[in-house]
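Forwarding the complex inputs:
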Amino acid sequence: MSKLDPMSDLLRNKSATLGLALIALIVIAALIGPALAPYDPLIPSPLERLKGPSSAHFFGTDSLGRDILSRVIYGSRISLAIGLISVTISLAPGTLLGLLAGYFGGKLDSLIMRLMDVLLAFPAILLAIFITAILGPSLPNTMIAVGIVYIPHYARIVRSSVLSLREQLFIQAIGHLGGSHGRIIWGHIFPNSLPPIIVYATLGMGTAVLQAAALGFLGLGAQPPQPEWGAMLSEGRQYIQLAPHVAAFPGAAILFLVLGFNLFGDGLRDALDPSLRSL
Amino acid sequence: MPLGYISRRLFHLLLIMVGVSVLVFLMLRMIPGDPARLLLGELASPDELARLRTQLGLDQSYLTQYAIYVKNLLLGDFGKSVRTGAPIANEIGVRLLATIELSLAAMVIATLFGIAAGVVSSVKQYTLLDYGSMFLALIGVSMPIFWLGLMLIYLLSVKFPILPMMGRITMGLEAPPVTGLVVIDTLIAGQLGAFWDSLQHLFLPSFTLATIPMAIIARITRSSMLEVLNKDYVRTARAKGLNEVIVILRHALRNAFLPVVTVLGLNFGLLLGGAVLTETIFSWPGLGRYVVDSLMSRDYAAVQSCILIFAVVMALINLVVDLVYVVLDPRIRVQ
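Prediction (whole assembly, two chains):
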């Protein structure tokens, strides 16, 4: 039965496979970037400024004459790192807070969840902007800001799955048999609440890439000459009338990576948690 | 309407607002550098700095500073902008209306097209139309809106100059402000040419801002409709021989509407966040762009005020959505 085998369910899902292919393509580009990129992504070439796509430069060149394809390829490393690191920064404290709130309940639960409500009261991008302003504009600070903003989302998801697990017979039985809180939480509740965490983290990678690109676009993320896609788009904005390709290609790269995470995340959700299939 | 529920929700809202103000207050204190020096510049004398510190209450304890800060907020005194020297409350007022105009227009576009796409997808499930619109919706949520905005500018303002690329209205066509919403004001003044001009200015930014909510609304409408379309009452309506359009709109969509309303409310938060980016791209003189500009010139008093306003507006919208939910569905028994 396919229901018992999430992996084969996932592989049979065409859109999930497409998503995985998109992610794989960008991961490969990131891994073998130097071998793949036709030019150095940082060295300017004044004679080649703002050239449109051609056989010499497939994606054209930017305002300093740098090859956009090479910059997009190198930028994939930055965007993947942003996705992974930001999600880890949200995931670790978010999961811990959700586990504690859901398992112990009572005042601790109220305290944690009210704190999370406060963080959720801000539009995500605004809170990220504010945090970056405090920490100072840079790539690592962007990752921290985007990470902090999404902590409440993970805390809520983990808490709600802990709440339903806590009532399950096998968990109560372990409690009656003298299992310590630590053992029940980490040995039994945490592993059983992993599927929604995995699904949300995959979808969250796409969101993190988008938010970090937005910060980069506003000049708060990666600083020049780093080939970060959002920052490249920001530069392209100035030349939108003369050379639209400068903005077009980095934006398309963001779209492909985020689409990949969303397609794959949707597929994972269908495979791991069929009850959410209709959403 | 259950009064106990409303008062509980208002109390919760108040708690969140206290939390938000504490958080913003603490975060501002974490910004490196002396705020007095920031205001007066590098050339200020120690005496001037000390005087301003006393004036701003910076020599008081954090608790006293917070009390002063909250008192001023409650009195509507947000301080003065470092950049312009004007009271921040005045600057925010005009810009907030520009953002509201943009967000409302975006919400109308997102709701109309999102619901239409969702309904068509559910009725034509597993057809090319369904797959096509759901794939478009997925692209909608995966796309950086600042990129879409730039591409639309290139296509519709540069390559084919059909629509203006920036601002709210062509200079000189402004109508006297009544509501602060330019489209409505021009209509009130009976200036149809100016009305059309402002609508044209509004279209690109609001469409750009609408894409993500539109995509989400389309997806949720589809799934909600699919659940309802198999219900007995829909079958009964069809068996009665009712026109299919009436069955879908009156019997199915009406019952599928609750999750859609929730999503509509949640999306206002997305819209407000999206406004920061959209307004930057289209030079829309709203609150989002004001935050970015203030940030760039390190005008933190203005930044914090805007963030608070955004948080309050978001909380109020969530409250309204919850209440609408109760009104829409009498079956809901609020716990």
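Residues 68-104 of chain A form the longest helix (37 residues).
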